[in-house]
Amino acid sequence: MGVGGFARCGYGRVAVxxxxxxxxxxxxxxxxxxxxxxxxxxxxxxxxxxxxTEDGWRVTAVKAKERVRSVAPLNQSxxxxxxxxxxxxxGRISGAGTVAxxxxxxxxxxxxxxxxxxxxxxxxxxxxxxxxxxxxxxxxALIVGAQASGNVSTTLKPGTIADIAFGVKKLAGPxxxxxxxxxxxxxxxxxxxxxxxxxxxxxxxxxxxxNTVNVYGTPHYL
Length: 222
Fold this sequence. Notes:
222 residues, Immunoglobulin-like, five-stranded antiparallel sheet, Porin_fam_mycobact-type, Leukocidin/porin_MspA_sf, single chain, mainly beta, signal, 0% helix
């Protein structure tokens, strides 16, 4: 059975509006006769990682359409960070494996960390859809299901990173993906910078092997 031979099923996604714009530096002339300065690399640029599994399948994880927009917090508190996140995660399977793929998933989200918790329990809230509800403690015991992550609460300790999955899509063929657009994120009770780093994880399973491929974005600050 080839890649397209296993059952077609997947989790639905809820996307919301609002996309942050990334600014890309452009080259300037530094003097008479001088050539243009090379443009700075886009820290939000698309990335992909490909690996060949022991069964002969090429598995690719793709991170695309990433945006992180930091905004002034509505409560005007010096202990609050607020912003909007966008991301697309995609998984691809190609090649001629020797064993049929029986299952696969694509997971996309952000790792979020606070430098120092100045309260008894820092709260991190994420809203991606009006119907999604989830509350978890550290370490996270649940993952986001078919409805987009909404109102995620977790306790962060100094030096701790919270892994918040915005969605999981079943890879029911050679290609699948999920997109979250304009996700609202806030962190309360944090002293110092709040860093966010995107990730996409693609996992496949055969009767013989399980394989996982990850791709990460550049850290950004709220």
